[in-house]
Specification:
Elements lengths: L4 H14 L23 E6 L4 E5 L5 E2 L5 H12 L1 H7 L27 H10 L8 H13 L7 H10 L1 H12 L7 H12 L2 E2 L1 H12 L14 H14 L5 H7 L4 E3 L4 E6 L3 E6 L10 H14 L14 E4 L13 H7 L2 E9 L1 H13 L8 E11 L1 H16 L4 E4 L8 H8 L5 E2 L2 H15 L1
Parallel strand pairs: 9-10, 10-11, 11-12
Antiparallel strand pairs: 1-2, 1-7, 3-4, 5-6, 6-7, 8-9
Helix pairs in contact: 1-12, 2-3, 2-4, 2-10, 4-7, 4-8, 5-9, 6-8, 7-8, 13-17, 14-15
Bound molecules: glutamine.
Length: 450
């Protein structure tokens, strides 16, 4: 028994509870998919630390099908950039079925990269490079998201290639509007191969976790795609990932998701986790019946809805001393009195835009009536992003313009080299290794001004 069994237990509970939800049919328009075991039911979760949890048939291989679409969209965005990709594929929910024969009126573009039309174009956008043919890039990209080398299920590929006339029709329709970058037959062949890549629920959860973790695979630690790309892919998954059920899904479950007709389903908790389920029976939209039921219950019971973000502020500023903390009675000890006139703001954790606002607010509140010297203690700060850095420089500059003296405890030079800080604040910002030294330094300055 280990403590983390509690996580596995919740997955096992979901499996037991939803394992015999009736209804749904295994996809058989691709004959080989009709052979899947309808009772297989696997669940997997991967944390941002790369911890992997699973229940049931989480290591049974199946073909990825449409769950590949967000990852190849990510590849296209990384290779070509958002503007170029958007010339070919839109980003509007279509409200149509996944295989709808419809293109955006006016532009002729497929509505988005999560429906077949858009995915076929997205795959076609990936160019060959001298060292690596386009499909190898697709396969390797999926493998980097999964954290292991993947392969193609040739039987499923052939089965779809022999019956996939609807997708071929789509590819020809797209070419007729001028929005198909390569030969339609080639495009569809690559797309079928991509759909036939073999994965497990654990692979899918790792892939989902990579999108959750800003494009970094939390198991291998490889940066697979840039963070902005991962964010954009999640945006399209949130609005289009469940086809014509996308609005209802975002409303009730509230997690970017993507389903596939072999029964795979992923859901992403940004900066929190990747989840995946595998259960072949599908509803009429082509989404796994049990997978949806289990993810819905997980979301509701564990409060995972994206818009219900429990990561509320409150932990950035760990200490702020204000006038209220200062003794009003004159102290006999002059030096101690000076020490007590120095306000202290201590921050902790990673500082981004919202955290920087809290630090700046605390600086204004600190000290005697928002005046006097203040020490900003960054000892427990782990990182400051570039936006927050700019804000802190400007904020510290404003303090000195107001006549307040500031000093920082910045043992790891998170604020940047002193000359950069001087440029931003217009003054030398004394730096100290410890809070005690900074307070003593400020007190000495006050004594000099006495
Ligand atoms: N929704 C899906 O998973 C569809 C993928 C399948 N290969 C198709 O194009 O029909």
């Amino acid at each position: 028994m280990s403590a983390t069994d509690a996580v596995t237990d919740s997955l096992n509970r979901m499996r037991a509870e939803f394992g015999d939800v009736p209804g749904g049919r295994t996809a058989d328009y691709i004959p080989q998919l009709g052979l899947a075991d309808p009772d297989a039911f696997g669940l997997a979760l991967v944390s941002m630390d790369g911890h992997r949890y699973s229940a049931g048939e989480a290591e049974v291989p199946f073909t990825i099908q449409s769950v590949s679409k967000p990852f190849i969209y990510a590849l296209a965005l990384s290779v070509l950039g958002l503007d170029e990709v958007s010339r070919w594929v839109g980003a509007e929910p279509s409200g149509d079925a996944f295989n709808a024969i419809s293109l955006e009126p006016g532009t002729g573009r497929p509505a988005n990269a999560m429906v077949n039309a858009g995915a076929i174009v997205t795959t076609a956008l990936i160019p060959d490079t001298p060292g690596e043919p386009a499909f190898d890039r697709v396969l390797h990209c999926l493998g980097r998201f999964a954290g292991r080398e993947l392969d193609v299920d040739e039987e499923v590929f052939t089965s779809e290639a022999m019956t996939g006339d609807r997708n071929r029709a789509l590819a020809y329709l797209i070419r007729s509007t001028g929005t198909m970058p390569v030969d339609p037959v080639l495009a569809v062949d690559r797309y079928f191969r991509q759909c036939a890549v073999r994965v497990t629920a654990l692979d899918l959860a790792t892939m989902a976790a990579t999108l959750a973790y800003g494009g970094v695979n939390p198991v291998t630690r490889e940066q697979v795609v840039p963070a902005e790309v991962a964010a954009r892919v999640l945006a399209v998954m949130a609005t289009c990932g469940m086809y014509d059920g996308s609005g209802e899904w975002l409303l009730r479950i509230g997690l970017p998701a993507k389903s596939g007709v072999s029964g795979g389903l992923i859901a992403v908790g940004p900066a929190r986790f990747g989840l995946a389920t595998y259960s072949p029976p599908l509803d009429t939209s082509g989404n796994s019946v049990r997978g949806q039921a289990a993810l819905r219950a997980l979301s509701e019971r564990y409060g995972l809805h994206l818009m219900l973000n429990p990561a509320l502020p409150g932990s950035t500023v760990s200490l702020v001393t204000t006038a209220d903390d200062l003794p009003t009675a004159p102290s006999a000890d002059h030096e101690r009195e000076l020490h007590e006139k120095v306000g202290v703001v201590a921050a902790q954790g990673a500082i981004d835009f919202t955290a920087a606002e809290r630090v700046l607010y605390a600086l204004d509140e600190s000290g005697t009536d928002g005046r006097g010297s203040v020490v900003l203690d960054l000892h427990d700060v782990t990182a400051i992003d570039s936006v927050a850095l700019g804000m802190l420089h400007i904020g510290l500059g404003r303090l000195s313009a107001d006549g307040r003296r500031a000093a920082v405890v910045d043992p790891r030079d998170l604020l940047g080299p002193p000359d950069i800080v001087r440029e931003g604040t217009g003054q030398d910002l004394p730096r100290y290794a410890t809070r005690e030294a900074a307070v003593a330094g400020c007190a000495r300055t006050l004594a000099g001004e006495d």
